[in-house]
Specification:
The relative contact order is 0.09. Among the domains are: 143 residues, Immunoglobulin-like, CATH 2.60.40; 135 residues, Immunoglobulin-like. Strands 1, 3, 4, 6, 8 and 12 form a six-stranded mixed β-sheet that branches. Strands 13-11-15-20-17-18 form a six-stranded mixed β-sheet, with no helix packed on it. The protein has a five-stranded mixed β-sheet with strand order 2-5-10-9-7, with no helix packed on it. Strand 3 and strand 4 form a beta hairpin. By secondary structure, the chain is an alpha/beta fold. Helix 1 runs antiparallel to helix 2 and helix 1 packs parallel to helix 4. Bound molecules: copper (II) ion. Copper (II) ion binds next to loops. Keywords: Copper, Metal-binding, Oxidoreductase, Repeat. It catalyses: nitric oxide + Fe(III)-[cytochrome c] + H2O = Fe(II)-[cytochrome c] + nitrite + 2 H(+). Pfam families: Cu-oxidase_3 (PF07732). This is Copper-containing nitrite reductase.
């Protein structure tokens, strides 16, 4: 038999294949190499065997004429067998995942932002083994500060959406009278508005720059899993963490800090909104705004060294426990929506993405002088909207989306219709420009607001 002749032939073919496969691995994946290499190395190489080497040597020097006359046929036969064996082995190995071709589309074509930059092998070790969507294209999220909303997402495919949130403490005006040290995401209360699309994976990077030494994190109501992401994102001062969350459910969701005592972190300003667009977004409107209600609890001001009452007030645990809010505001301060009103033009449809950070109150959200032409109750964007709604109940930790058709010009006042909260700062304005429309709103007498009126400037 001439098996010894087959061995070196197959060995050459295997060696060639191994080199070829290694070249694939070096540019594509190391997984195949790891799985394949031990099998190849553990098989004794026929060329290295002294016995087989002798066989080859003897054969090559005998020079038997009969064998020579059959050489052509034998060589063809051997080549055929070795090629068939090699091909069978190769197909088997590829099915087992040991070999990958450039034509395979299984390996990532997009860089992984979490992967270390010191080589493919390290990246393979440290890349998460879940969230199968690592092949998603990467997109940097547009983040906006209230009352602004990022533009609608027009793409029709999911992405890995990169979001950076940084926690910072910041002393700023709370009411027209008092300053307050707010705990913020990205230097603003509420935190930035994040716009994503259903099916996206949020690549959330949180950094703690709070010099007070307080840890912070993110609990987002759009994240599915225990704690809403909080345990994966808790960062101490100077620390950065990254976690990924798939967004399977469309709607408008609150995010907030959930470090204990959670009420204090929320009461100091750590919340914001994430809008997960449905596959087919809501009908386009003329203006979109971001408004968030929340309440603050503070002690009375203390006397400064000069005997004057301080212009800064501090958090009150007893007031918070009693749910006796001292301040109720939109967008983080009494003046946020009065000094800088929302704006629209006559006949515009205005959409408000409205969230309630709480920490305790339910809002009776209302805009004086109009009704909500559409309400996506509790931010349910999959069901048909309610229509012609005067006041919407929005619980702490909840949200709503309302549309208003502005058919008469003038100033509209945004309130919580639990109306004594107006005295605590819950007020904003929406200015609608345009010519009067007497066909809808008319009197022969000029308007005469009541004296000291806080509702109708
Ligand atoms: Cu916090």
């Amino acid at each position: 038999m001439h098996i010894p002749v087959i061995y070196p032939t197959m060995n050459t073919a295997f060696s060639s294949l191994y080199c070829t496969k290694s070249r694939f691995a070096s540019v594509a994946t190391v997984r195949g190499t790891r799985r394949l290499a031990p099998r190849l190395r553990s098989s004794p190489s026929p060329l290295r065997s002294p016995l087989l080497a002798r066989h080859i040597s003897t054969k090559s020097t005998e020079g038997i004429a009969r064998d020579r006359s059959n050489n052509g046929t034998r060589v063809k036969y051997v080549l055929f067998l070795s090629t068939a064996a090699t091909l069978s082995w190769f197909l088997y190995a590829q099915q087992q995942g040991a070999v990958r071709l450039d034509s395979d589309k299984k390996y990532s074509t997009h860089p992984d932002p979490l992967a270390p930059k010191n080589g493919i092998q390290d990246a393979q070790k440290k890349t998460p083994k879940s969230l199968d969507d690592l092949d998603l294209p990467i997109e940097k999220a547009i983040l906006t500060t209230a009352p602004n909303v990022p533009p609608p997402i027009t793409r029709d495919y999911p992405v890995l959406l990169d979001v950076d949130l940084t926690t910072v403490s910041k002393l700023e005006q709370l009411t027209n009278q008092y300053k307050y040290e707010k705990w913020t995401f990205n230097n603003s209360v509420p935190g930035p508005f994040i716009r994503a699309r259903v099916g996206d994976v949020l690549n959330l990077r949180i950094t703690n720059h709070d010099e007070s030494g307080m840890p912070h994190n993110i609990d987002c109501h759009a994240f599915v899993g225990p704690g809403g992401g909080s345990a994966l994102t808790t960062v101490n001062e100077g620390e950065t963490k990254t976690a990924r969350f798939k967004l399977p459910n469309p709607g408008l969701y609150i995010y907030h800090c959930a470090v204990g005592p959670v009420g204090v972190h929320i009461a100091n300003g750590m919340y914001g909104l994430l809008y997960v667009q449905p596959e087919q977004d809501l009908p386009a409107v003329d203006k979109e705004y971001y408004v968030m209600q929340s309440e603050f609890y503070h002690e009375p001001p203390e006397a400064d060294d000069d005997g004057q009452m301080s212009s800064t007030v501090e958090f009150s645990w007893p007031h918070a426990l009693r749910e006796a809010a001292d301040v109720v505001v939109f967008n983080g301060s009494e003046a946020a929506l009065t000094e800088k009103p929302l704006k629209a033009s006559l006949d515009d449809t205005v959409r408000i993405f409205f969230g309630n950070g709480g920490p305790n109150f339910t809002s009776s959200f209302h805009v004086i002088g109009t009704c909500f032409s559409k309400v996506y109750r509790d931010s349910d964007v999959l069901s048909p909207p309610a229509q012609c709604v005067q006041t919407v109940s929005v619980p702490a930790g909840g949200s709503t989306i309302v549309d208003m058709k502005m058919v008469v010009p003038g100033t509209y006042t945004i309130v919580d219709h639990a109306i004594f909260r107006l005295e605590k700062g819950a007020k904003g304005f929406l200015n609608v420009s345009g010519e009067p429309r007497p066909s809808l709103y008319y009197s022969a007498q000029p308007p005469q607001p009541c004296e000291g009126c806080k509702l109708h400037p």
